[in-house]
Amino acid sequence: MPKQLPLTDLDACCSPLAREPLSEGQAVELSRLFKAMSDPVRLRLLSLIASHAGGEACVCDLTGAFDLTAPTISHHLKVLRESGLVTGERRGTWVYYRVHPEVLARLSAVLVPGEETVPA
Amino acid sequence: MPKQLPLTDLDACCSPLAREPLSEGQAVELSRLFKAMSDPVRLRLLSLIASHAGGEACVCDLTGAFDLTAPTISHHLKVLRESGLVTGERRGTWVYYRVHPEVLARLSAVLVPGEETVPA
DNA sequence: CGTCTATATTGACAGACCTCTAATTAGCTA
DNA sequence: TAGCTAATTAGAGGTCTGTCAATATAGACG
């Protein structure tokens, strides 16, 4: 099962959610990203990676922060990878992860609230 | 960090995800919001409500946009309500939903990517 | 080669989730 | 009161998800 992200609607995207209704395709794409962030462990992993010095973190930097087995961390990293939020690169014995800042920026832009409408 | 209000981590929150690691509590709170947005139907509902004229939408304005039964729409609206993203108010026969813009703004702020670090 | 360490994959299981139909509640109007 | 509509709740069925133990893969090094 090839899990490459097909980036269709998201490319033409990112007028804020509150400005005009999302198309079904946009909603599907965005929901995939939000689902990847819908678990506390994955959110912390994402944050640990994004905020780590040098912009990348080794898996070995991450596992210690959780009371979970290595396979579980690996599973969550895979979900983050397949969502397109992060990439992993093997260098020798270790695997280093870094975030895709454009994806974060895109999500942030989508969530910007629209201007207030005057209450009736 | 001043802790004035008796609420959760989200109140004291919102340094961007990429700036420093999320606390476990912050991650739990945020993951609840992202989970509420992790379904395409709920995302479109949220967008329909947020972008609707007057800042609010009647359930009757929403159901027509989907090939789903009324109970299913109602279920999704409940999830959005319980997450704190929207509120519903009954006025006569109809129920009107509106978004909490502060919550959207908070999420948007959390996702702002950190400044680029110079590649090695 | 063999062995050690760091990650990933597999397979299983309990719990959560999305959708439906059927039943229920809330309000309007006769 | 009864009847009608808008919306929600309850319960069931099938699917998806998070976690683990066991196993496998990749590279470093003697």
Automatic annotation (TrEMBL), chains A, B:
Q: Name one Pfam family in it.
A: HTH_5
Q: Does the keyword Transcription apply?
A: yes
Keyword DNA-binding recorded: yes
Which chain positions lie within coiled-coil regions?
A: none
- Ranges for the HTH arsR-type domain? 22-119
UniProt cross-references to InterPro entries, sorted A to Z: ArsR-like_HTH, ArsR_HTH, HTH_ArsR_DNA-bd_dom, HTH_MetalResp_TranReg, WH-like_DNA-bd_sf, WH_DNA-bd_sf
Q: Which GO terms describe its molecular function?
A: DNA binding; DNA-binding transcription factor activity
Q: Quote the Gene3D superfamilies the UniProt record gives.
A: Winged helix-like DNA-binding domain superfamily/Winged helix DNA-binding domain (1.10.10.10)
What superkingdom does the record give? Bacteria
Q: Which UniProt keywords apply?
A: DNA-binding, Transcription, Transcription regulation
NCBIfam families, alphabetized: HTH_metalloreg
Q: What is the protein name given in its UniProt record? A: Transcriptional regulator
Organism, as annotated: Prauserella flavalba
Q: What is the lineage of its organism?
A: Bacteria, Bacillati, Actinomycetota, Actinomycetes, Pseudonocardiales
